Amino acid sequence: MKNHKFNTLIETLSELPTVGKKSASRFAYHLIFKDSFLALKLAHNIEDAINNVKKCGVCQGISESEICYICLDSSRDNEKLCIVSSPQDILIFEENKLYDGKYFVIEDLESFDEHKLKNLVLSGVNELIFALEHSIGNDALILYIEDKLKDHNLTFTKLAQGIPSGMSLQNIDIVSLNKAILQRTKT
Ligand SMILES: [Zn+2]
Fold first, then answer.
1. How far apart are CA 134 and CA 163, in angstroms?
2. What pLDDT, on a 0 to 100 scale, did the predictor assign at position 137?
3. Residue 72: other Cβ atoms inside 10 A
4. If you measure from the C-alpha of residue 30 to the centroid of ligand 1, how many angstroms do you get, rounded to a whole number?
5. Which residue, 187, 103, 182, is CA-closest to 141?
6. Backbone angles phi, psi at 78, to 5 degrees
7. Which of 32, 52, 83, 100 is the most exposed, fewest CB within 10 Å of its CB?
8. Residue 97 CA, ligand 1 centroid: distance in Å
9. What distance in angstroms lies between residue 83's CA and the mean position of ligand 1's atoms?
10. How far is the CA of 106 from the centre of ligand 1 (A)?
11. How remote is the CA of residue 182 from the centroid of ligand 1, in Å?
């Protein structure tokens, strides 16, 4: 087969989310002919991350130990717990210092670990903040969680209006996100 190895590389790259065949082909050409040092660094970093990065056993965020540095940080506000739909959302809040409480990731209902959330709530949480994009699915999720935790005397809040439906936190500008969390409202 002609250029079998090069074509396999393109096909593999095109399996990445948002990467089409055209970009995959451009990446492959760049990695092999323009910057093979970058290519090897990338291969090494991917392997290193796969072997060392995991999900935090408490909040399900990204961690390199059983429990992440945020969950272990005793200087944070333990009374606030922010529910996000992906570990990357935590990075946005952290990189921009928008929030000083704890987090809990719920990517979908199937992987949602109710027991872990209840344990966290029992550690002294009094406000649960839903930092989720507007969608019918998330509205249902919020109702579901509120029902599960109704006996814990919590205040349930969500980000202020202004986050367009269908837009993820990762696409919102930081000023708007900061405003949304400061002006959060009761659900
Ligand atoms: Zn954690």
1. 7
2. 86
3. 13
4. 37
5. 187
6. -75, -10
7. 52
8. 17
9. 12
10. 13
11. 22
Place of tokens 């065949």: 21
Q: How far is the CA of 143 from the centre of ligand 1 (A)?
A: 24
Closest Cα partner for 99 from 126, 129, 142, 68? Answer: 129
Domains of the chain and CATH, by start: 4-52 (1.10.8.420), 62-186 (3.40.1360.10)
Reported pTM: 0.83
Contact indicator for 155, 101 with CB cutoff of 8 Å: no
Q: Helices 21-29 and 4-13, interaxial angle, to 10°?
A: 120
Residue with tokens 């970058």: 38
Token digits for 57?
């056993």
Give Dmax (Cα) for the chain: 66
pLDDT digits (tens, 9 = 90+) for 100-135: 999 999 998 888 899 999 999 999 999 999 998 888
Token pair in block for residue 100: 């000083």
Which residues, including other chains, have CB under 8 Å from residue 3's CB and lie 6 or more apart? none
Cα(181)–Cα(101) distance, integer angstroms = 12
Who surrounds ion ligand 1 at CB < 5 A? 56, 58-59, 61, 68, 71
pLDDT higher than 70, residue 162: no
